[in-house]
Amino acid sequence: MTGAFVIIALVAAIVAVLVVHTHRIIRAERGQKPGQAPGEGDYVFEVTYASGLGGGQTAVVRVPRDPQAYARQFVPRDQRKKDEP
Fold this sequence. Notes:
2 strands; flat
């Protein structure tokens, strides 16, 4: 019976810590708008993959900060208007 009590107490303590942490985050972010404001330029990610025996690949991924430019990337090339890049 004491083993079950210990497990229940540990679970309750973990849940309490999570609730307090969540409450602090929500209170700290109150008044902020969700998401990110559109901006100029791109986020640049360098992705490196090493396969172990000396081989590997590196790629650079660019993600526009502007939501409209990001959405335009998913439009097929033949469907795009001529005045768009």
